[in-house]
Amino acid sequence: MIKQKIAPFLTFNGQAEQAMKFYCECIKGAKVTHLQKYGKREMAKSEKEQDFVLQGAIEVLGQEILFLDMTSEYPAPAFNWANSLLIRCESQSEFDAILNGLSKEGTIMMGPQSVEGIRQCAWLTDKFGVVWQPVWA
After folding, report:
1. SS3 call for 81
2. 13 shares its domain with 59
3. pLDDT digits over 121-135, tens only?
4. Element (H or E) spanning 128, and its range?
5. Residues 65, 17: one domain?
6. Residue range 10-52, pLDDT digits in tens
7. For 61, left (φ over 0), alpha (ψ -120 to 50), or beta?
8. Could you list the residue range(s) of the whole structural domain that residue 113 is in?
9. Is the peptide bond before 112 cis (omega within 30 degrees of 0)?
10. Coil/strand/helix, residue 73
11. What pTM does this model have?
12. Angle between helices 92-102 and 16-26 (to 10 degrees)
């Protein structure tokens, strides 16, 4: 685990593991670095929740992103535009691959387009509702 001092922490309602796998498929070199399920803990109110992610992490381009599934007792709020994950791309092909992968079953809200001195940028919501900004400067 990278363990930088500040890390994005994403909370889901039973979809954290699917999201982790999806991001690893969409972003070259991304990998799951930690995955712990609730199991038969007191917090899990059902057998389904026993399979929820209690602690998860992926490494994406040297950055750690943490994951958690909330239980039905305390559901996670929906993701929105107020928070996004900006991902800096090193080439047009990397930008295209990330944009096409993350927007699969999601929504491109802006772009791709050039803005000021930026070659390409876009704003998208993936199929889990997480907002991303791929940028190729």
Report:
1. coil
2. yes
3. 999 999 999 999 999
4. none
5. yes
6. 999 999 999 999 999 999 999 999 999 999 877 777 888 999 9
7. left
8. 85-136
9. yes
10. coil
11. 0.92
12. 150
